[in-house]
Design a protein that fits this description.
single chain; mainly beta; Immunoglobulin-like; Jelly Rolls; 2 domains; five-stranded antiparallel sheet; about 45% strand
Length: about 230
C-alpha cells in the first residue's frame, strides 16, 4: 500500500523555487516509521523543506525532516493497537477459559486506558461467553469490567483497572484476551472479533500510529518548497 496524491497546486515564489500544496490520502495499513513520499509526487524535482501537513482528522501528520527519504508520520495523543481474535486460534486452558495473545506489543512507556472489541461472530456454543483483556499472569489488568459478553455480535469494551495501568510500563506489553464460558471452553464452537487496546505515552506527548493501522480515511495537505 502507498500514499495517494491529489491535484497539485504550484506557486513560483522565487527564481528556480516553487511552493506546492498537495492533497495526500494515507492507506489502510500504516507502515511503522512513516509513509514514504517523493519530490516528484509533490510537484517538485527536489524537496528543500516541508512547511506543514495539515489535516482535519484526529491524527497529526508530521514530516520526518528528511529531504532525501521523506516520510509522513501519523501521530496522536492516544492510539489503538488491534488484533483479530478467532476461536479456532485460541489456547484451551482445559477449564472454562481460553486465551489468545496479541501478535504485536504495546510499546514501553505507554499508559493503557482500556479496550474495545468488535465481535463479528459471537462466541457461541455455551450458554454464556465473557471476555477480559490483560497480560499473562494478570488477566484482568486492562479490564475494570470482566463481565463483558462476547456471546453475540456487537461492540463491547472496558476501561483499564486504574491501579494497574502502569504495571510493567518500563517494557513492551503483550495483551492477552481471555474468553470464559459457562461449562467448559470446548463447549464454545465459534467466535471472531477485533480487539483494540487504547494507549497513550506517559510523557503526555504524541505517539506514532501502530503498524498496520487503517488510515485510509485520513486526508492531509502537504505544503512543500523546492526546485
Amino acid at each position: 500500500m502507498a500514499v495517494t496524491y491529489g491535484t497539485i497546486n504550484r506557486t513560483k515564489i522565487a527564481p528556480q523555487k516553487w511552493m506546492t500544496v498537495t492533497p495526500v490520502t494515507l492507506d489502510s495499513s500504516y507502515a511503522t516509521g512513516g509513509e514514504s513520499i517523493s519530490a516528484n509526487s509533490l510537484g517538485l524535482g527536489q524537496i528543500d523543506s516541508i512547511l506543514s501537513i495539515s489535516t482535519d482528522d484526529g491524527w497529526q501528520l508530521c514530516w520526518n525532516q528528511s529531504t532525501s527519504a521523506p516520510k509522513i508520520l501519523a501521530m496522536a495523543s492516544m492510539v489503538g493497537l488491534s488484533n483479530t481474535i478467532v476461536y479456532s486460534a485460541m489456547t484451551d486452558n482445559t477449564n472454562t477459559t481460553g486465551y489468545k495473545d496479541f501478535t504485536v506489543t504495546v510499546p514501553a512507556g505507554s499508559l493503557i486506558h482500556g479496550w474495545k472489541a468488535v465481535v463479528s461472530t459471537g462466541f457461541t456454543g455455551d450458554t454464556t461467553a465473557t471476555m477480559q483483556v490483560g497480560v499473562s499472569g494478570d488477566l484482568d489488568r486492562f479490564s475494570a469490567d470482566t463481565a463483558q459478553s462476547c456471546l453475540a455480535a456487537g461492540t463491547i469494551g472496558s476501561a483499564a483497572i486504574a491501579a494497574d495501568t502502569l504495571d510493567g510500563v518500563s517494557a513492551a506489553v503483550t495483551p492477552r484476551v481471555t474468553v470464559t464460558g459457562a461449562a467448559d471452553f470446548t463447549s464454545i464452537s465459534a467466535g471472531s472479533m477485533i480487539v483494540t487496546v487504547m494507549y497513550s505515552a506517559i510523557s503526555g506527548g504524541l505517539i506514532e500510529a501502530p503498524s498496520t493501522t487503517d488510515l485510509s480515511a485520513v486526508v492531509g495537505y502537504v505544503t512543500a518548497i523546492g526546485r
